Amino acid sequence: MFRTLLIANRGEIACRIIATCRRLGVATVAVHSDADATARHVALADRAIRIGGPAPADSYLRGEAIIAAALEAGAEAIHPGYGFLSENPEFVDRVTAAGLIFVGPSAAAIRAMGLKDAAKALMAEAGVPVVPGYHGADQEDGRLAEAAAAIGYPVLIKAVAGGGGKGMRRVERPGEFASALASARAEALGAFGNAAVLIEKWIDCPRHIEMQIFGDGAEAVHLFERDCSLQRRHQKVIEEAPAPGMTPEMRAAMGEAAVRAARAIGYSGAGTVEFIVDGSEGLRPDRFWFMEMNTRLQVEHPVTEAITGVDLVEWQLRVASGEPLPLRQDQLSITGHAFEARLYAEDVPAGFLPATGRLDHLRFPGGARADTGVAAGDTISPWYDPMIAKIVTHGPTRAVALNRLAVALDETEVAGTVTNLGFLAALARHEGFARGEVDTGLIARDIDTLAANPALPPGILAAALLTAALGQKAPALQGFTLWQPLRHRVTLLQGAELHTAHLRLTAPGRALVELDGAELSAHLTPEGWAVEGHPAPKVLRHGAHVDVFARRLGTFRFTLPDPLARDTAAAGQGGLTLSPMPGLVRAVAVVAGQAVAAGDRLAVLEAMKMEHVLTAARDGVVAEVLVAAGDQVEAGAALIRLEEADG
Hints:
The protein has 17 helices and 39 strands.
């Protein structure tokens, strides 16, 4: 086993690797950008080394700087985590050339699986079923259109170097193919530097089921499956293991195919073979096809650890240090069921826009595993993925594990930035999901319900108003001030909505709240203000902000208005297009003087690894372009100004 390991990553995966290293007695070296100088993984590691500026290209993608840091610290090996350089074969070659050990597969194995078209050809040769499609080198528009017609619509266009849903478009009919192809190519080129695509048959009731495999270069085993079908925009949201409805025959067939894939490339380390499954008639051994192989540890690996009792990071370190596989296939088994929910800083009702902000408060429940790379007081920056944590639960049955997930999400508390916590809680209680009716279209079908902002209960608003005005541990005679009225006005903002009420103290620790024509009674308890006899919700105040953590509803944030602040609502009028988040201006599609119609593309903004197209809200003429491609902008920055078209 290594004495010292450098972790070429950040956030929750770096912290996760450090936890196993501590248990094994392995010293850890963290690397960090300027933006991560005070990050949690830096504090947890035995040593930390700066490698550059906040942009990934200036830090976590600088392979030579990472290798130099490892040599400086006397590390024997580098663990890449996932993302960044984890699947970069050139980086693996440089690590090996420097006399260090790369904790992962060989560069040759990564290259073999790096491009989806070549990987599928290789898998077909190895006897692994692949989705009907076109994976050829001829990338002429006409040839691709012919292939789509031969396969039969609907089809799926996918970037050959893709991942995370980038460079992927579903096409329903021939007339839509050309525009979808151009869009997919542009996104693929920007994300991966490779505009090549492949064409596949669209599967009507698709399920995304993947097999966790592990090899030592000679032998390979699988550690069963994970179902990752609950997705939005091809991004995984909640994963589980084992897959609902899985049969022994199907598991055996998928497991054998995954192990064949690993053996075909002499695989060493942790990897995942992803399959697309036609779930229209249940899970059948003849209805699954190879999709891609991820030559690294997966974000969702904790659910496999929960059902197998295996520490996959420990296995990675042991195999990389020269040991054989710790267990044979017949020594591996499944115990119970597990779920993982990905908690992000994002604005769900606004279309899952990534969010930033300081984490004023962060608390995870004691009954669940929470893998996180942040703590209260940290800031979610625009430079990296906005993941806050992964909440993982385990139980003897799927129903028990899912109920524990719902409770864990109810008990998770985040304040300071908007999150997808309420969305996750709604998913965990979705009746179809609870029945195991899982496919990749579930979220899209029910998005209006799942993404809706919960209604604000009067009791929650009353508790916030009382806390803002009086606090939660008020002295017995608070409010009974000489020459002051016993009834006073309190105002709170919730987003752009203004809430006003009148409070009237009736006795020590008791009050009446006049709200929207109704009168609510409240009394002070050790936990805070209870309204109309209901238990007091947890309420925290941070400066001008009041956060209420409402079980099953999520977090409600209110702000005390600043009476000296100018009303800036008019700034959003006059035809200004504002940046909805901090990000990088990837492209500007218009010039001054150009006429545009409502819905026309104005600019493309990149933030948190995703591209967001900004469109014209109305017809008009571009009066002024205030940014250029390559500019870094803050949330609310003015990008483009429109004026009314003449006539």
